[in-house]
Amino acid sequence: MINKLYAVCLLVENFEQSLTFYRDVLGLTMNSQDNKYADFKLGDTLLAIFEKNEAAAMFPKKYMTFGGGCVLAYQVDNVEKTCKKLQKKGIIIFEGPKTTPWGQKVAYFKDPDNTIWEITT
Q: Residue ranges of the VOC domain (predicted)?
């Protein structure tokens, strides 16, 4: 029934701030933009940002409450080097780089809306 992840859409408070973060700070390549929506191509999946007030055109804002949150996990070539590049751009790495008990190399930071990002090899 469900067989492929097409997109992850983050509902954000401040579109311009998030656009700057994802496009300019993280250096993601924009795929498309329309008003307060933009998406970035990451492999076969889109990562989209959509300002909450505009997203209300899809469904009422009352449904835009969040439970346990989520962690966006992305592969990089080298966790340590990526952390250094991110820190030079002002991103705070709040955990790591470290190796988990199961052997995975990881580090964590947050976007402007406090969505947690994991980078891993």
A: 4-121
